[in-house]
Amino acid sequence: MEKDIQQLKTWIDHSDNVVFFGGAGVSTESGIPDFRSVDGLYNQKWKYPPETILSHSFFTRNPEEYYRFHREKLVIEGVRPNTAHLRLAELERQGKLKAVITQNIDGLHQLAGSKNVLELHGSILRAYCSRCGKKCSAELMNYGEGVPRCECGGVIRPDIVLYEEPLDNDVMTRAINYIRNADVLIIGGTSLNVYPAAGFINYYNGDKMALVNLSSTSYDNYADLVIHKKIGEVFSQI
Ligand code: OAD
After folding, report:
1. Average pLDDT estimate for 159-179
2. Is residue 135 within 8 Å of 126, Cβ to Cβ?
């Protein structure tokens, strides 16, 4: 095993307070494209940039186009958790991992068996009415046609945080507390470009911050250990 992965393994072996903070790169090995890689979502050709389509004002103004994008790009049928998701769930069962904090909206951590998952940006597996607030069928939203509507006539929307919308206060506070109190903080598969989420890692107080990401990030100098490898491959060895 390579030295850097061995170092991470040793930290995990000796800790019962590991916290994981992740992003889209955790799910690429499951077949979901990330946002900012060369072949990521934001570099694919589309009429508007994804940041625009995934914004509150765009959703309100143009739900048809939003849903075309949503069903074609965000909903990927048959995806399964990969080694990283599965190993994180196992670490939680072993009492070593306290929480998975994710920017992902795909529900794969829960599918892998993780229980304490803090979804900073929500989930496309949940939907509610943008008018009356009632919970609605995600099935209809993800696999139906046209703009899904509630019985009240309102547009059904995904329970995700769109650009221009605030993060949930409770989820944010809990995420910050886990990070603040963590012994080992593993950050994985995220470009750390999107705020406020990326800024939460600044609350970490310890000296065992590991950054596992294919490409470099602006936090590489800040981490105690940097591993530029595929996260599934790294987790298969720890
Ligand atoms: P990004 O696409 O910005 O970053 C993903 C990172 O994962 C990149 O730096 C890749 O190099 C890396 N990566 C890809 N595959 C990997 C692998 N197998 N192993 C390790 N690293 C890998 O995605 P996020 O940082 O998650 O927001 O983006 C944050 C937010 O931007 C998302 O939650 C989404 C998006 O707009 C909303 O939907 C609100």
Report:
1. 98
2. yes
Pairing status of strand 117-119 against strand 97-102: parallel
The answer to whether the CB of 43 falls within 8 A of the CB of 209 is: no
| pTM given for the model | 0.96
Tokens standing for residue 25: 């790169």
- Identify the sign of the CA torsion 54, 58, 59, 65: negative
* Phi then psi dihedrals of residue 135, to 5 deg: -65, 140
Give the DSSP H or E segment for 5: helix 3-13
**CA atoms of 115 and 99, how far apart (whole Å):** 8
Q: What is the pLDDT of residues 47-81, one digit of tens each?
A: 888 889 999 999 999 999 999 999 999 999 899 99
CA distance 219 to 190: 11
Atom in ligand 1 nearest the alpha carbon of residue 217: 9
- Which amino acid type is present at position 10? T
Mean pLDDT of the chain: 96
Query: Are the C-beta atoms of residues 235 and 18 closer than 8 Å to each other?
Result: no
pLDDT band, very low/low/confident/very high, at 108 (cuts 50, 70, 90): very high
Strand order in 156-160's β-sheet? 135-136, 122-129, 156-160
Ligand 1 center to 49 CA (angstroms): 16
Residues with CB under 6 A from ligand 1: 23-25, 28-29, 34-37, 40, 54, 103, 121, 161, 189-191, 193-194, 213-215, 230-232
